[in-house]
Specification:
Largest sheet of chain A: 5 strands, antiparallel
Order of helices and strands of chain B: HHEEEEHEEHHHH
CATH architecture of the largest domain in chain A: 2-Layer Sandwich
Number of helices of chain A: 6
Radius of gyration of chain A: 19 Å
Strand order of the largest sheet of chain B: 1-4
Helix content of chain B: 40-55%
Strand order of the largest sheet of chain A: 1-2-3-5-4
Largest interface: A-B, 54 and 46 residues
Structural class of chain B: alpha+beta
CATH class of the largest domain in chain A: Alpha Beta
CATH topology of the largest domain in chain A: Phosphorylase Kinase, domain 1
Order of helices and strands of chain A: HHEEEHEEEHHH
Oligomer: heterodimer
Strand content of chain A: 15-25%
Strand content of chain B: 5-15%
Low-confidence stretches of chain A: 161-167
Distance between the termini of chain A: 45 Å
Shape of chain B: globular
């Protein structure tokens, strides 16, 4: 996919999202700056149809996410992930609702969350940048790194004592 | 939870084509062993956009988007790891990377080393949990909270992509999960 097409797709996803709410993108971007400071707001490269997510704040070090109210984050789940995974999971805080309850069908208010930005790049971007040739020794070594790390983190939550207390 | 799993598997036994029946029955039979696994928090959208890695080394840095995470038996989201060891083409299905076997071995060895040894029964239960998770995720339509309740996929154009995924991981002898032959004997 070339960058022009990719841009079109992201804009399209963002437009689809804002068709489901009366809140505007400008309102969201403005609130993002108010919440975390900084003068830049940059949408993340891959958007879901149920949320609008931007990098903002000093050095774009924060993530602000606007979600349709019907798909709000469960704060217990986010907190549990953070307790179990530590820095492997973002710290999420709910800030406010944006927009009023609407009578208009298909127009939802948004719920606003702020989280820290996990450093590094997505595996998708990694593959686009380094993924070929697929079966080079370098890429085999990289896949091995990742599968090992994932196996170790899987064990981390297997044995998580904090969680076991909640069972 | 236990009731839900059993109910869903019985729905699939009616709805999915006959070729899947032996494996669904084996999964029903394995449910007690699956429930004996530790209950953990399962990320349900462990895909390429949500896995954050270090540039150059590809070491794991973090996992984002825990919105769909839920609590359940260990292993019921391990089907997601297939994406780290093979690639999925929209039309042609799964192709394993050349180091697939090594990666599978590395995964199980790391898991076993970290827990101080996995006995064969536990490993078997984890493999069964992986099949259960795959069926729950891909043999039904989407599970997003604001969409209609999930229904089993159909063996037609609308279900083609999902059917290709489960055919590839459960039936196709060149791409299916390791250890299924022994399990189904």
């Amino acid at each position: 996919m070339d960058s022009e097409n990719q841009k079109y797709t992201v804009d399209d996803e963002i437009a689809t999202f804002f068709s489901k709410t009366a809140v505007t993108r400008d309102t969201c971007d403005g609130l993002a700056k108010d919440l975390v400071g900084g003068d830049q707001v940059v949408p993340v490269a891959v958007q879901g149809v149920c949320s609008y997510t931007v990098y903002a704040g000093q050095g774009l070090g924060c993530v602000v996410q606007f979600r349709l109210r019907s798909l709000g984050l469960k704060s217990e789940t986010a907190a549990l992930a953070r307790r179990i995974f530590g820095s492997l999971a973002p710290e999420v805080s709910f800030r406010q609702q944006l927009g009023e309850d609407s009578e208009v069908a298909g127009q939802e208010p948004l719920l606003v969350y702020v989280m820290n930005r996990i450093q590094g790049i997505s595996r998708l971007d990694f593959i686009l940048a380094h993924g070929f040739p697929e079966n080079s020794p370098e890429n085999m070594a990289r896949r091995k790194n990742l599968i090992q790390d994932v196996a170790r983190s899987a064990v981390g939550f297997w044995f998580n004592k904090q969680y076991n207390r909640l069972r | 939870m236990a009731e839900t799993f059993e109910k869903e598997l019985h729905i699939l036994l009616v709805a999915l084509p006959d070729r899947f029946h032996p494996i669904i029955r084996a999964t029903v039979a394995a449910l007690p062993s699956i429930y004996s696994l530790p209950t953990v928090l399962l990320h349900q959208d462990f895909g390429d956009c949500n896995i954050m890695v270090q540039d150059e080394t590809c070491h794991l840095v973090g996992v984002i988007d825990w919105a769909e995470a839920e609590i359940g038996p260990f292993g019921t989201n391990l089907h997601s790891l297939q994406d780290l060891m093979s690639k999925l083409h929209m039309k042609n299905g799964w192709t394993r990377y050349e180091d697939y076997d090594d990666l599978v071995g590395t995964f199980w060895k790391t898991l076993s080393d970290e827990v101080g040894g996995l006995d064969e029964d536990t490993a078997k239960a984890i493999r069964a949990a992986r099949v259960l998770g795959l069926l729950r995720s891909w043999a039904f339509t989407s599970r997003l909270a604001n969409e209609p309740a999930p229904v089993p996929i159909k063996d037609d154009e609308s279900g083609r992509y999902r059917m290709m995924i489960i055919d590839g991981l459960l039936l196709n002898p060149t791409t299916r999960f390791e250890g299924l032959d022994e399990w189904l004997e």
